[in-house]
Amino acid sequence: MAAVGQCSLAAQWRSVSLTHVEYQAGDFSGQVLAYLSLGPIFILIGFMTLIIFKRELHTISFLGGLIVNEGVNWLIKNIIREPRPCEGAHTTVTTEYGLPSSHSQFMWFFSVYAFLFLYLRMHQTNNARCLDLLWRHILSVCLVTGALLVSYSRVYLLYHTWSQVAYGGVVGCVMAIAWFAFTQEILTPLFPRIAAWPISEFLLIRDTSLIPNILWFEYTVTRAEARNRQRKLGTKLQ
User: Fold this and answer.
1) Which of 20, 25, 99, 193 could form an SS bridge with 92, CB 3.0 to 4.6 Å?
2) By the 8 A CB rule, do 115 and 180 touch?
3) Residues 6+ away with beta carbon under 8 Å from 188
4) Separation between Cα atoms, residue 55 and residue 60, nearest integer Å
5) Distance (Å, rounded) from C-alpha 22 to C-alpha 93?
6) Least confident segment among 31-35, 109-113, 232-236
7) Residues sharing a CB contact under 8 Å with residue 82, sequence separation 6 or more, in sequence order
8) Secondary structure of residue 74 in the 3-state scheme
9) Within a 13 Å sphere around the CA of 118, how many CA atoms are in the beta-carbon half?
10) Is residue 27 within 8 Å of residue 154, measured between CB atoms?
11) Angstrom distances, CA of residue 145 to CA of 21, 107, 165, 220
12) Residue bearing the bigger pLDDT, 125 or 26
């Protein structure tokens, strides 16, 4: 049972457990899309987890950009005040207005920023160039696919119109490009100073902006340290 284009207020809507996202009862596609539309929540949880364990300034800046992006979305919505489609169809909505779609804006900000980070910020330092490019391409396709699915889910579930989703995507892309440029040109030169602050040292906040590929760096350093400790342990046991 497709939900697109059906504004019947008599339809029975069910919410995904512990969330406000609703789908029409008996619509399996709508249920799947309802879970997919929770992508921004999962991403925010992932960011908080990553910051707690990594405490890296660029990651903190990325999250800051997402928060600013949400603020811009709220501001635009309350200036334009375009209503959502099928008003009254859903029992709970976080905001009254629908232009631009916050889910679409969030996902496209995240996808475009991550795309720029992958291709402009990270540089491979080992010899596996082809493999490195392959996983970047695959990840980029996954990012775009995720953004498209979440955007489509908002229309399918009658939370937004196509134009509201499209404008959200455009604003998200523009914000991602602007925030990436701001981070690279303004914030990144300040990261060494910020990392040297006493509060940063106390919280173990670090700056890895000068390391081309942090994944490869952490892998090689960890492997070398493990081998060094293993040799020392072997020497003590002799």
Assistant:
1) 20
2) no
3) 58, 209
4) 8
5) 9
6) 232-236
7) 97, 98, 99, 164
8) helix
9) 18
10) no
11) 20, 10, 15, 32
12) 26
Report how far residue 62's alpha carbon sits from residue 209's, in angstroms, rounded to the nearest whole number: 13
pLDDT tens digits, residue range 132-155?
678 888 888 999 999 999 999 888
Query: What angle do helix axes 162-182 and 57-80 make, rounded to 10 degrees?
Result: 140
CB 22 within 8 A of CB 157: yes
Is residue 69 within 8 A of residue 172, CB to CB? The reply is: yes
Side chain identity at 145, as an amino acid letter?
T
189: left (phi over 0), alpha (psi -120 to 50) or beta: alpha
Q: What letter would DSSP give residue 179?
A: H
In the beta sheet, which residues pair with residue 24? 13
- Measured CA to CA, the distance from residue 222 to residue 95 in angstroms comes to 47
C-alpha to C-alpha distance for 23 and 162, rounded to whole angstroms? 18
For residue 229, give both structure tokens.
Answer: 């400790």
pTM of the model: 0.82
- What's the rounded Cα separation, in Å, for the pair 59 and 55? 8
pLDDT in tens, 31-55: 788 888 888 888 999 999 989 988 8
Cα–Cα distance measured from residue 34 to residue 21, given in angstroms and rounded to the nearest whole number? 6
